[in-house]
Amino acid sequence: MMTMMHVFTCFLFVLMFDTSEQCEASFTATLPGGYNTNNLKPCVQYNQVLCPDDGYNSTTGVFTAEINGTYIVSVTMMTGLVAGHTNLWKNDELYVWLYTGNQYDMATQVVCMDLVEGDRIWVIMANAASYTLFDVYNTFSAVLVPSE
Ligand SMILES: *[C@@H]1O[C@H](CO)[C@@H](O)[C@H](O)[C@H]1NC(C)=O
Ligand SMILES: *[C@@H]1O[C@H](CO)[C@@H](O)[C@H](O)[C@H]1NC(C)=O
């Protein structure tokens, strides 16, 4: 009986987590196929939204936090046959650098970030080394870490 109760409780727990899995204050977006060159300024416009959120504007590529909290933010890049840098920015602060070489290399940074309502994050091409990002291998995501 206790075991059944436990199983049932776990099941409910899973169900509850399932309903909260609808990208609440979280998003993922990627780029269209091929070489992207025209959608990288002033910041990268990841316009293929896989997991939408009201805070993420796919026209500008900027995520604006609507809920205070700690977020896991991830950027993955591939430049293709040229080397290149990107930067993740939080408001006026350069948060982290990414770099990939010219052999279809990929780079990822997964970082923790405290955001309050109105804080903005985005990704730019840096160092003017090259202005291309290759294909769907580029993603930008943020996930609000549940505080309870
Ligand atoms: C996204 O940003 C563009 C450019 O600033 C703006 O025109 C548009 O209304 C914004 N979209 C949303 C859903 O806020
Ligand atoms: C979010 O954080 C800001 C800055 O610390 C604070 O002024 C605001 O009251 C907070 N909002 C909520 C809903 O807790």
From TrEMBL:
Coiled coil: none annotated. Keywords: Secreted, Signal. Residues 1-25 form the signal peptide. It is found in: Secreted. The keyword Iron does not apply. GO terms for cellular component: extracellular region. Residues 20-148 form the C1q domain. Its main location: secreted. This is C1q domain-containing protein. It comes from Mytilus galloprovincialis (Mediterranean mussel).
